[in-house]
Each structure stands twice: as C-alpha cells, then as structure tokens.
Specification:
heterotrimer; A mainly alpha; B alpha+beta; C mainly alpha; B: alpha+beta; Cytochrome Bc1 Complex, Chain D, domain 2; five-stranded mixed sheet; C: elongated
Chain lengths: ~550, ~325, ~240
C-alpha cells in the first residue's frame, strides 16, 4: 500500500482553457465523473425537498393555517414528495455510489455503456428542470401519487409539466438499470464469480431489475394522465367512462417496487459497512444476496396493499396481504444476519458504522410497522393517516438516507482522496438518529389517533404530538447540515487518504484514492471470496488496540 | 393521559377487535424491536475492539440459524395474516337488516341522506346499537369516508358505489375525516358523527334544518315534508318524470322487466350469466343499460348517463328497493 | 491480439465481451419496451372486459383491409431484416445495404398506410356535417343508433331519442379509440425510430464499417425491428379483429 501513487487520479485534467475544463466534466464518459455530477445534482434536489419539508413542519406546529394557506401547503407537500422520491431517493445510492463503485468493485474499467451513462445524467437533469419549471410556474398540487380523476380532470396546476419531468427522469432510471445489469453480467474481473461479488453489487443488481421492468409502467400511466388532460378524453375519468382505479393499479405497480429501488441499495451499503467495521466476513452471505433478489421479485406482486380500502375485492385484499407478509421475510433475514455478523467481531465505532447501527434500529421499526399496514383489517384504520407517513419515512429517511450518508462517509476517501473529520462525523450521525426518531416516532401515535395525511389544518388535540414532531425535525435538519459543512471543508483541509484507510476488503480499495481514470493499473485477478478477512483478523485487530487508537 | 390523547376512543363493534389485533402486533414488535436493539448494543459493546473477548472460531454461516430466523417470523406473520384477513372479511361482510344511509362526496363537502328523506351536510346522525350501512359515491374525485373512533374508512369513488357498515356502541360525537387527498380544501372536508340514543335519533329525523344539496343549492329544511317525502317517494316521482314507467310496468304493454321484488334476488342476463341485483347493478342498468340485458328483453332502453344527478340515481335505487321490501312483506304475511 | 480492432471500446477486453454486453443490453431494453406497451395492454384488458360490446362495435370502424395489408408489409420487412443480419454474418456489404433499403421502403409504406388510416379518421372530424368523429377529444362523436338500438324504441319515446343523441352515450367508445390511437401512435413512433436507425446502419454499412467479425449494430437494430414487428402482431388482432 503506497501512500503516494505515480498514477494520476481521475480528477487530473489536462485542459488548458475553461471550455476544455467544462467539456472534460460535462462530456465525460468516465463513470466516476458522472457519479460526481449525480452527487452534486441530487444533493441540490435534497436541499430543495428538505426546504419544502421545513415549511410543512413549521406550518403543522399550530392546528390552524397561519404560515401558509391550503393551496400553498398542498403544493409544498407535492413538491417535497416528487423531488425527494423521483429526484433524490430513486437515484441516490445507485446513481451516485453505484455509479462510482460498481466498476471498481467488479474490477472493470468502466460501466458497459459509458455514453448511455452520461446520457442518463442529462436525461435526469432535463427531467429535473421540467419539475423545477413546474414548481416555479405555480407548482403542482396533486400529491406525488397523482391520483385520478383529481390529477387528470380537476387539478388546476402544472400536472402536465411535472408528469413530463417524471416521464423523462424515468429514462434515466432505466438506462442506469440496463447499464448495471449488463456490467455485472459481462464485465467482472477474472475470477470474480457471482458468489464472490460484494453484497452491494447484488443489491444493485436486484434494484436494476426493478428499474428496468417497473419504470416503463410508471411512464405509461403518467403519460396517460397527461394525454387525458391535454385532450379531455376519459381514460381514468368515470364521468367519461374511464376507471379511476386503473391508474392506481398502474401507478403502484411501479411505485411499490420503487420503494425497493430506494431500500435495496441501502441494504447493500449496510452489508459492506457492518462487515468492514466488524472485521469479519458478513454472516450468511448467500442468504443476504439471494434475499435481495427475492425482495425484488416478490415486490412486483404486492402493489395492491396500497388499495385495501379502494373498493377492490376482499379476495384481492387477501392475496396482496399474504404476499406483503411474504416479502417481509427476506428483509428480516437480512437484519438477523447483520446482527450475527457482529458476534465475535472486532467492532469500531467509526462514523459509517454509527450510521449502519442507526439504520438497523430505524429499519427494524420501519419494517415492523410495515407488518401493521400489511394487515388488511388494521390498514382499514391506519391507511392514509400519519401512521403510513411515519412508516415510510422510517424506511426511506431513516433507512435509505442513513445508508446513503453512511456509504458516502465510508467511500468518501475513495471518491475524494480526503478524510473527513471523524469527531464531527460521529456527532452528526448521533444528531441525525435522535432528530429522526423525535420527528417521526410521534407520528405513529398521531396516525393511530386518526390524523389523516395531507391535512394542514387539524383538530387541536393532535397539536402536542405535532409540535414534538416539528421540534425533532429541527434537530434532524441541523443534523443534515453538519455533514454538508465538514465534508466540503475536508475537500480542502482534510487529511490525504491512503488507498485503503479502513483496511477493508474489496477491489475498490486495491486501487489508489481517488482512482485513476481507468480504475486499475492492471486488471485485478480475484482469487478469494468477498470480505475475506482471515478468521484471526478480529482477534488481531482487538489485540492491536491501545488506548488512544481509533475507537 | 397528559392532557392530550395517545389512543383513540372505541365506539364501534369492530373497534375493539381491531385494537386487539393492533396490540398483538405491538407486542410482537416489542419482541423484535425491544430485544434486537439490545442484542445489537450488547454485541457492539462486548466485541468492541477495546474489549477483551473470546473471538476464536467465528462462524460465517449456519443453515440451522438461517432456517430458524426465516421460519419463526414466517409462522408468526402467517398467524397475523390469518387473523387480520378474517377480521377484514368480517368488516366487509354486510350485516343483517342494516339502516341504510346514502352518502355523496363532493369537493369539499359530505352530503348525507337518510331513507326518510332527511338530509344533512358534514354530519352523520346515527342511532346507537344498530347496524348502519353507508352507500357512498362521489360526484367528482376520490374521497375517503373515515371515522377513527370506529376504526373504519372506505374510499368514495366516482362512478361506482362503495359500502361500509358499522354498529356504534357509544353515544357521543366523533371525528369524520376525508382521508383521500381531494384537492385544495381537503383538510376542510371534515365533520362529525353524532351517535344518539334511538328516540333522540328518531326525533332528530323529523327536525327541520337547512341543508345543502349535492348540486350546491340550499333547501330550507332538510326534512321530508319540504323535499317531497322519503327517498323512495322522491324516487317514485323521478321514475314518473323520466318516463321509466312507460316501459317498466306490470301490465301487458310492458317492454321492460318488472321491477317489483327484484332487489337482492338473482337475475338472468341475455349473455347467460346470473347475478344478484344490488345497488351497483341497478346503477349500471340505469346509466348504461346496454351493458347487461335481462334475458327475454331487447336492448331498447336509452342511456341516462348525464341525464340524472347522483342524487336522483340514489333515489331511484331507493324506490326500486322499496318495491322489493313491500312485496317481501306481503309474501310473508 | 485484439488491438487491431478499431470498433473495440477502451473499457472492454475482447470483442466477444463487447458483443455479449451489447446483446444483453439490447434484450433488457426490449424488456422495458414490452413493459411500456404492457401498461397499455393492461388498460386494454380492463376496458375490454368492462365494455366488450363497445370494443367489438368500435372495431368495425377500423379499416380492416388496410390493417391486414400493413401486417403483411411488416412481416415482409422482418424477413428482409433477418436476411440482412444473415448477410452481415457473412460480411456481404452490398446485400446488407440492399436488404435494409428494402426494409426502410417497407417501413415507410407501412407508415404511409397508417397515415392514410389516421387521415380518414381526422377527415371525418373536419368535414362540416360529419356523422361521426372517432378522434378522441372534445368533438368525438360515435354514431350509436345505427349499430345498436335499430330504431326499435327510439321513434316512440322522446326521452330515448334525446338520450341516444347525447354526447355522453358515446363515452366508452372514446376509450376504445383512445387506446387505438395511443397504441398505434406509440408503435408508429417506434417505427420512425426504427427507420432512422436502419438509415444509420445503411450508411455505416456503405462506409464499410461492418465485417463478418463485427456486425453488432446490424444485429441489434434487427432485434429492435423484430420487436416492433411483434408488437404490431399483437396490436392488429386486438384492435382490428374483435368480432
């Protein structure tokens, strides 16, 4: 492991003029540079979605409408949902971490289709511009779910523009998915068999399957809404002979698997983190790997659990409820395997590990409350209440974003070549964990009390819990700001990172930090399984501990 | 508890059962969410790199363990699944002889009509201890009729009827919410459910109050005398005015099926199918008569889609139902 | 050993790897296309199940003769594409160019006929005293009385007369024609893309870019062409042949 490498990193540019420099970034076909483009773009979207959430939480402090009126409130929660789901969470881990790491983990020089990869970023960016244009031209107020016939006939806001944005963004998702699947199939280094792949790769593989197969259906359903608005024809409007529930079926056929697009890569990240900071091979590798695939496959057949009270037949309710319980099992398997990995490990409390532990706590609650919602009779009561809001924020914010942050910290030295401040890192991980739980745990109580979602005016007896939730969101907001600051600071003042600062396994750590343009000087040859920490490694690691060495 | 509620009131027969399922799930969750984090905490402290511990012979996989933690959660979740599905079927099965109340949702108001013709807005008065069935539709977008104290909700979908039943167990006032986002004033589409003792309910039924009709116009009293009688009586008038009676008649000039005593009974269609006459079927036969033709009759009925308001369709259905009730009673006597 | 090959991208090790990657990528893309049309087919199934009589009546208003001709043309074009791919395997440049030009011509004829069909539907709407307008939209009008009521009751009852002529009577019909226009329109869009693609391949073949060792683009665009052909083979009976 050499600290200084003669190899130039992918940041090195030979451009002499500004134009050259711009070209070297905006016309790059290097997956690492494209990942950086994605990183910057989606974080801007995250801040935007977060700003909307801040106003929402502030408004909900009082039971009356005093900060914003109903119309603005509706537009804000739609903005929050559309931005966070389609323009942050769906691309977050795959398009940033996946894009950067997949070829590195596979020992490849690039993704299979580098130009498609660049195209996918442009498509994403243009889709985002459409969504932003819709917002600046007055916003859209249908909710991110676009339920018909409200969205198709009754709403007076920029539905078509937003729908176009999401439609376009869908192509970006599809292109990334195709690229990943082909790369994983065809570009693995010699000796890297399927069951030697890192679990992060398995998770992204499962995610890509969903992206490729489900996104077109979202495209069709949302395009049909736009056509219906444009032409005034009634494909979803019952007044014109259409069926409003058909939209819900098509929409959830994508949007339920979309949840797994967000959480599967997060699970992949957590497997990497726990293994590294326990200095052990992950427990039950095959079970974690295959459970990702199982989730992706079963996840296609559970969409109807969003429609238990929509007047679909009780028998569909039965089937969808059953399948929803089935899809919970692979998630449980993962959690148990992660826990077992800790046993007899040598554990350190580094920032990424704290995020991983936070993820586990939060994900367990999010997953278990999912069982409440899958119980059709109970869902009759809590459907469309804050119980649902709390549940999916536990999965998406608590789960996906914590894993995203954990992964970002873990691979930050690899991506930027710098180390971040460990103290600030741990502090922010703790603040985010506390703030998150304070924000969303009270919402379970609100939901069971019957507080419907998407209400900005509510009965007074709910106020205490709402104030608690808003207070928590302030802490959460601060928690998100801290990493932005110290990570940016580290770019200039951070310690120079070695190739493998965490002494982790995996091909990505065998190359320099940051890697050269072609990733590896020589194509690596893989001779061992993933996470091949020697059996005596935990013992050795613990023995080497001295007071004052990193926790 | 601390001046604000943490648990909703139970005011219907199913509320207790749903809460029981809820608590069972909370208990089950505590086994996992209450124990697992402590196991994790114990492990990360016990095996922290600064701790002396036996780290020899770590295991990386165990089929036995994997099976254990797959099968036990599976069995538990199947238990919950059967319990909840059983309850779900129970919630969705119609009760015997319910009091039927008709609900129309529109942006952003609930309009309710009782069988005797009494109308009300954003309030639902019901007698305690009686099964009540709501027959609901929407004039515009999808709404959802939600009464947290009863633990029940059902989407109210335009172009079709959805039904929901409950039996209040406690007099009092409860929240009524629209749970499905329906536009600008979604959060103002709220009201209350007033559960009264039966005599009070009957008194209320004949009290005069102004009400807003689903078309937006106001009537000075929400009671039958002003609006022309019970729902069935108004339905009979609509039946006359629309000319239905010229074909649907009992004498030899009839060109269409006689409507007496058909509701709730099976009927044969020209396509060879048999189905039970319910609200949804009557609605379709009024609005799109060509869809299902009764065997022995020609497809000659014109469509009434766009000709009748949702209100009038409900009144016609109430009228047709009343024809069946009368006959049934006569047969019994 | 592989360095001599100009078509090998920097990040692949061997031409075989590159070709396999391209093929797998193409198949995945085709899967997304199938899901895209799958959404529309889902809508078709739901509404056909709800309004069977409307769909079978609406089907009579499509030009079966032109549809049949178009189906035959498209099947021929698939044959020329398959032969072109075969020629590419053998490295016969002239044959590829000629067969693909034939494909382009057949595709253009298909689009021309489709255009005629569309034009007929639009012309009915534009005519001043039109009896029907089958283009979904605000002026949509479907002549119901000729197909259904046969005048049995309408003459006697004024109510029924009014109802039959009301615009609302034709609403479910609109859904059939909407699905027809969306599905065939989306298909036609894919045809335009396919023809452009074939144009590029012809140009590349003419410049001698392909050889018996490297003809992946020919094969990939061939796959794409077969897919749009297959989609049409499903669309045709679903819209033209319901009786």
């Amino acid at each position: 492991m050499s600290t200084t490498s003669p190899v130039a990193s992918f940041y090195n540019d030979h451009s002499r003029t500004m134009i050259d420099w711009l070209k070297s970034w905006f016309l790059t076909i290097d997956h690492k540079r494209i990942a950086i483009l994605y990183l910057i773009t989606i974080n801007i979207f995250f801040l935007l979605g977060g700003a909307a959430a801040t106003v929402l939480r502030a408004e909900l402090v009082t039971p009356q409408a005093d900060l914003v009126q109903s119309d603005t409130y509706n537009k804000l929660f739609t903005l929050h949902g559309v931005i966070m789901i389609f323009f942050f969470l769906v691309p977050s881990i795959p398009a940033v971490l996946g894009n950067f790491l997949l070829p590195l983990m596979l020992g490849a020089k690039d993704l299979a289709f580098p130009r498609l990869n660049l195209l996918s970023w442009y498509v994403f960016f243009i889709g985002g511009l459409f969504a932003l244009a819709a917002t600046s031209l007055g916003g859209v107020d249908t909710g991110w779910t676009f339920y018909t016939p409200y969205s198709s006939t009754y709403a007076n806001s920029n539905v078509i523009l937003t729908a176009t944005g999401i439609f376009i963004m869908g192509f970006s998702s599809i292109l990334t998915g195709i690229n990943f699947i082909v790369t994983i199939h065809k570009m693995r280094a010699p000796g890297l068999t399927w069951f030697r792949l890192p679990l992060f790769v398995w998770a992204n593989y499962a995610t890509s399957i969903i992206q490729v197969l489900a996104t077109p259906v979202l495209g069709v359903s949302i395009a049909l809404v736009a056509v219906e608005r444009l032409l005034g024809v009634g494909i979803f409007d019952p007044a014109l002979g259409g069926d409003p529930l058909l939209f819900q079926h098509l929409f959830w056929f994508y949007s339920h698997p979309a949840v797994y697009i967000m959480i599967l890569p997060a699970m992949g990240v957590i497997s990497e983190l726990i293994s590294c900071y326990s200095r052990k091979r992950v427990f039950g590798y095959e079970f974690i790997a295959l459970s990702s695939i199982a989730i992706a496959v079963i996840g296609f057949f559970v969409w109807g659990h969003h429609m238990f009270v929509s007047s679909q037949s009780v028998y569909s309710g039965l089937v969808f409820s059953f399948l929803s319980y089935l899809v919970a099992i692979p998630s449980a398997i993962k959690v148990f395997n992660w826990t077992a990995t800790l046993y007899k490990g040598s554990i350190s409390y580094s920032t990424p590990m704290l995020y991983a532990m936070g993820f586990m706590g939060v994900f367990v609650i999010g997953g278990l409350t999912g069982l409440f919602l899958a119980a059709s009779a109970l869902d009759v009561h809590v459907h469309d209440t804050y119980f649902v809001v709390a549940h999916f924020h536990y999965i998406m914010v608590g789960g996906a974003i914590m894993a995203y942050l954990g992964g970002l910290h873990y691979w930050w030295p690899k991506i930027t070549g710098r180390l971040y401040s460990e103290i600030w890192g741990r502090l922010s991980a703790l603040i985010i964990f506390v703030g998150f739980n304070l924000t969303f745990f009270p919402q379970f109580f609100l939901g069971y009390l019957g507080m419907p979602r998407r209400y900005h005016v509510y009965p007074e007896e709910f106020q205490v819990l709402h104030v608690l939730s808003s207070a928590g969101s302030t802490i959460l907001g601060i928690g998100y700001m801290i990493p932005i600051i110290y990570l940016l600071v580290s770019l200039r003042y951070g310690e120079i990172a070695k190739s493998n600062p965490w002494r982790a396994k995996g091909l990505e750590w065998q190359t320099t930090s940051p890697p050269p343009t072609e990733n590896f000087e020589h194509t690596p040859i893989v001779t061992e399984e993933a996470y091949a920490y020697p059996p005596e490694e935990p013992e050795r690691d613990a023995a080497s501990y001295r007071p004052g060495s990193p926790l | 508890m601390w001046g604000f509620p943490l648990f909703p009131e139970q005011a219907s027969t199913v509320a207790g059962q749903i809460d029981l399922l809820y608590f069972a799930l909370v208990g089950l969750s505590l086994i996992f969410a209450g124990i697992l984090p402590f196991v994790v905490l114990y492990l990360i402290v016990r095996y922290h790199r600064s701790m002396k511990a036996d780290r020899s012979n770590p295991i990386n996989s165990s089929l036995k363990l994997e099976l254990t933690w797959s099968i036990i959660p599976f069995i538990l979740s199947m238990g919950v699944f059967f319990w909840s599905t059983f309850l779900f079927f129970q919630i969705n099965a119609d009760p015997d002889d319910p009091l039927e109340i008709y609900v129309i949702g529109k942006q952003w108001m609930w309009h309710l009509q009782h069988p005797n013709g009494k109308r009300e807005n954003n309030e639902l008065h019901v007698p305690v201890g009686q099964p009540i069935k709501l027959i609901m539709t929407s004039q515009d977008v999808i709404h959802s009729f939600y009464i947290p104290a009863f633990r029940l909700k059902k989407d109210v979908v335009p172009g079709r009827y959805t039904t929901m039943w409950f039996e209040p167990t406690k007099t009092g006032e409860y929240h009524l919410f629209c749970a499905e986002y329906c536009g600008t004033e979604h959060s103002a589409m709220i009201g209350r459910v007033v559960v009264l003792p039966l005599p009070d309910y009957q008194r209320w039924l004949t009290t005069e109050e102004p009400a807003i009709l689903p078309d937006g116009s106001t009537i000075s009293t929400g009671v039958s005398s002003d609006s022309g009688g019970s729902m069935a009586e108004i339905g009979a008038q609509v039946f006359q005015q629309q000319g239905c009676v010229s074909c649907h008649r009992t004498d030899s000039a009839a060109r269409a099926p006689v409507l007496n005593n058909i509701f709730g009974k099976p009927t044969s269609l020209a396509s060879g199918e048999t189905l039970t006459v319910d609200e949804e079927y009557l609605r379709e036969s009024i609005l799109r008569p060509q869809a299902k033709i009764t065997v022995g009759y020609g497809p000659i009925m014109p469509t009434f889609e766009g000709q009748l308001t949702e209100d009038q369709v409900l009144q016609l259905i109430a009228y047709i139902k009343s024809l069946s009730d009368v006959d049934a009673n006569e047969e019994n006597q | 050993m592989t360095q001599h090959h100009t078509a090998l991208a920097h990040h692949f090790d061997t031409p075989e790897q590159q070709k396999e990657a391209a093929t797998l990528g193409m198949w995945l893309f085709l899967a997304t296309e199938i899901m895209l049309f799958g959404g529309i087919f889902m809508g078709y199934i739901v509404y056909r199940w709800a309004y069977p009589e409307v769909f079978s009546a609406g089907s009579h208003h499509l030009n079966l003769a032109l549809g049949t001709v178009n189906t035959l043309i498209l099947l021929c074009s698939s044959l020329t594409v398959a032969l072109a791919v075969h020629a590419a395997e053998e490295g016969k440049r002239r044959v590829i160019v000629n067969l693909l030009l034939a494909t382009i011509v057949l595709g253009a004829v298909f689009l021309g006929i489709k255009g005629v069909e569309y034009y007929q539907k639009f012309a009915e709407c534009w005519a001043p005293a039109s009896e029907e307008c089958l283009v979904p939209g605000r002026s949509f009008f479907y002549p119901t009385e000729t197909t259904h009521t046969e005048g049995a009751a309408s003459a006697e009852s004024p109510v029924s007369e009014a109802a039959v002529h009301s615009e609302t009577a034709s609403r479910p019909y609109q859904i059939f024609f909407l699905l027809y226009f969306i599905a065939t329109g989306l298909h036609a869009f894919h045809m335009v893309v396919g023809i452009s693609l074939m144009g590029v391949i012809v140009w590349m073949a003419n410049r001698g870019r392909f050889s018996a060792e490297y003809y992946t683009p020919v094969e990939m665009s061939g796959l794409y062409w077969h897919l749009i052909d297959i989609i049409w083979v499903f669309l045709f009976p679903l819209f033209y042949l319901i009786h």
